[in-house]
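In response to reviewer comment 3 from the previous cycle, which asked for concrete evidence that the modeling workflow produces usable outputs, we include below a single protein chain processed end to end. The sequence was submitted unchanged, and the resulting structure tokens are shown without manual editing.
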Amino acid sequence: MSTNPTKEVLRCHGPSFVEKVKAMLVIASDKKRNFFPTCEQRGIKDVKFKDDQLTVEYVELLHAACDGKTPQLYDSWAFKKKVFNEIEGSNGIYETALNGKKTVMCYIIKLANLSTNVDISKMLKLNISSGPWIKQLVSGKSVTLEDGRVIHPKDVMTNYKTAAGPIVVLDCPTEDYLESLITNKQLLDLQTDNVKPVLMIHMAPAALITDPGYQAFMDRFQSETTHLMMNEDSPGPYIHKSQMFQSVLNRLHAQISPVLQGKYNYNMRPTPTTGRIVQACPGLKYTIRPEKDEGFNWDSLPYYDAEEYFHNVKEEAVNESLEVIKYLDYEKHSINLKHMTVSDVENEINLLKKKLNAREALTEDKDYPEVVFLGTGSGKPSSFRNSSSILLQIRKDEYFLMDCGEGTLLQMYQMYGLEKTQHILRNLKGVFITHLHFDHHGGLFSIIEVVNNEMRQKRRMDKLTIIAPITFSSLCQHHSRYLNPIENSYKFIPNHALYDDVKTNPNSYVLREVKNLLGLSELAIVPVYHSVKAYGICMRHKDGWKLVYSGDTEPCDLLIRYGQNCDILIHEATLDGGKEESAARKRHSTVTSAIQVGRDMNAKFIILTHFSQKYAKLPVFPEESTKNVAYAFDFMQLRPSQLWTLHLVKPALNALFGGQRDSKFFRVLLQAKRDERWMGKKAVNVEELAD
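The workflow returned the following structure tokens.
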């Protein structure tokens, strides 16, 4: 991003219209339009980008069906007409206008040569003195001394290396772009350059790479070039801290915190690849400079020993807690961490396992609904909590997604692996978006793209039903216009339309259609109190269970009224109890106020989620947290028969993560202790530090 005295400019490098992504951000934001920087697209028309460190040449690949025309734009009125025609079940006629130029962008990255200097220490080691031949070495030529020795530039120069070969980034998403890849002049010229590419990154499907034409293209670049493959054959995705945290939760309750099924095995390092074709994997690094380190660094791959990590977590729980409590004279917050030892932690875990084993014979035999938390944090994702997303399995192989924050698809791949994720998305009935804050809808287009692909491959026949704020239709319009046509893969229903029907026309076609789709006997989309138009959802299934999801909101009387006597309430709890004033300013709930909503609703069980990232692992369990209240974690999967085991986990969680240790005042105490700002004091005003 560059700035001038009056306006910031965000340069977007990529295909035509890439800068239009900003329009989607403006539509979805409650900020004013001038809050965003001006976007400037840079692409094939600019030829290249250059600064002191590198030069990036733009390479454009054209779709095989490209007629060279500029894409026509969708008529917004026609688009909206189509949306509402579909809502009313009529056969509105609408033809896409995206029949013009379809391109993808590739890049050739050339590094600038490093400045070189004579290294006096190297000259002394060679027992040579300066002379006129130094100038020849600086220019890159070798010289022969009077004693017959041949001195090369690298023998006496620092940072000396012949020009580093370029890095080539190739994006060939389908076979439609293969002919353009093979015949592109810029890529053909790389074969005749004196300096061949050192690394070529291939973002192409595995099946396409095996195509004879693609193989012939790769064969043009022989031993000088390493090929890095980035596609579905790569292990991953993988978030290191998330995986480690999940391994600890799995030890506490394996049924609700299962082992993640993603392809990356974090318990062993991949065997280094020795050939010139390498499959990319999470954390793999390639070094170009300095020359002595050139190549892949396989030691950079994330890895940990689960047993060792669990031992370290227990040690840290004891050491950190006792270290702080030694300076903390405030009984309310000390909980049970005084004098805690590793044995105490292990005893809590062993006691938990005994209780769970005894409980198994007492649980109800109810499998659905299964609730899977794919994201339980607020705002931007952290290493431990992703943005909001909840996957509901209504019956066997019938799925419904409530909110879809950024990274939702990645979370699914981590939890289920590729095949199970594709199975879920083939059977995903619908998506409910509570409001248009990015941490609640930012991952939806990734989901729609997968559904779109499944429909193209004839592996899914029905459209995905999306229930969302009306503005989301404009986001879909921009996505289809500038990124990828998706309008044939979903059916859009505005939240407010369902709410209006609940109030005035409970037998409307749209409401009946959604209830039949999800197998519901009752459905209410309810406006709630938040900073943008936001909605909660109350649903009763034909099998008898009732579930309520609040989305983001302050305590809301209307939600309480429609949610009466629910079996499960999933409610946001952004802030700790005692922060009601701050929560009200941000139109959120606290842990204690969310619990009170559940009691006013007469909810049988309350699950709290959407925690501030200040409480990365575990918020404080307040006194109001009774047996029917639980905290959600990422990758937690719950069936009705397991709900009443959750309170058993609380003592072990407190022992391992001591909820308050992640709260702000405890971090302040730790930092103050480390800085020795109040050594020797016996008491601290914790409430003052916490504000």
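Residues 306-357+669-690 form one domain. We consider this sufficient to address the reviewer's concern, and the full set will be provided in the supplementary archive.
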